[in-house]
Amino acid sequence: MRGGDTTGLRAYNERLIIHALLRAGALSKAEIARETGLSGQAASVIVNRLLAEGLLIKRDKVRGQVGQPSTPIAPNPKGAFSLGVKIGRRSLEAILVNLLGEVIASAQENYDAPLPEETVRLAIAQATGLLASLDAPSRKRVVGLGIAMPSELESWAPELDLAPGTLDAWRDIDVAAALQEATGLPASLHNDATAACAAEVILGDAVTRRSALYLYLGTFIGGGIVIDGKLYRGEQFNAGAIGSMPTAHQSPTGAPQQLIHTASIIQLQQAFAEEGIDAGEALLRGDDVPGAARIFDVWAPQAAEEMARAVISAMSVIDFETIVVDGLLPPAWRARITGHLAEAVQDFNRLGLSPAEIVSGSVGPMARVLGAAMLPLQARFSPNTDLLVRQTIARQSNAEAASSLAN
């Protein structure tokens, strides 16, 4: 095998092993070989290299079983780090996570509107501040920075009751380039709801089947798509733009309204404000805020009915097995609106459609920023090829290991 191919193969098998350990938590070398399809020799060589690089660690030997004691190998939480930044319509968040996806530092700023230059300055300050919290060796282990923000943020001024042109500068700002220059890290930009879907796939437990439609109830509703167990972004990186689906309601101009106008948290926030209830407190504490449950229980069935129309439309195109509902709502409210959605879906004529399980998401309000932080780690450590390619590469690696021993 050519040198370049060998290097690529080695990197792939390293990802394969790290990915297996991140899923399992810890495995012996023999278990790693079985899980990845590598030979025992090939797995051992790679594991030893990753131990030396500090990406993996050894745990205490397991004794008392049949045969020789085994030494579990686990991902080193301090082996790699990643930054996530979420630029939202009402708030800015930044987090620093370790290799296991654990949040080790965070920052947040609320605002009335995402004014372009000011928001980018805040994002830079948050990201660089979190980096400064690391010691020098850890700083070198930060693999990248993910950014989650709504698509075409400059177009949302009317929905946020802002004067025309207030957000126009977003058209000319390269957010990823600005943060990359400020931090020195490779930066990637993602739709905020897509990033939230990524968090559910990587760290959550709601996506248990190979296909899912993911709904994120943020200030404005958005979505994501999972196909073949993987996040699907689409050819133009805008798959799952569920908020743009037309509804049966008409705007003042007579054009169909979009789902964002009828099933977004902003309508719930406005209802709270009209009753003199602090929306932030209500979305944090739910039923514990006096009067909040009454307003939510009026809004939720109406929003669910609108969501159901979009869900049925999406299921008519892709045979989704699961519908996941997550977002800014507290867990009890997420469960209630998920129940309303399940009931509303039953009211539609579903002839010709396969049934889908409708479940609450497990990550919650942090999904967007957490997904932004996890995507650079996934890009660095997760294999992205299908099973056939994985098995082929494993066989090649086994052959290489045998050849090396023979020589």
From TrEMBL:
Sequence ranges assigned to domain HTH marR-type in this UniProt record: 16-59
Molecular function GO terms recorded: DNA-binding transcription factor activity; kinase activity
Domain of life: Bacteria
Signal peptide span: none
Keyword Protease in annotation: no
A Pfam family annotated for this UniProt entry: ROK
Keywords from the named record: Kinase, Transferase
Family, as annotated: Belongs to the ROK (NagC/XylR) family.
Protein name in the entry: Sugar kinase of the NBD/HSP70 family, may contain an N-terminal HTH domain
Organism: Afifella marina DSM 2698
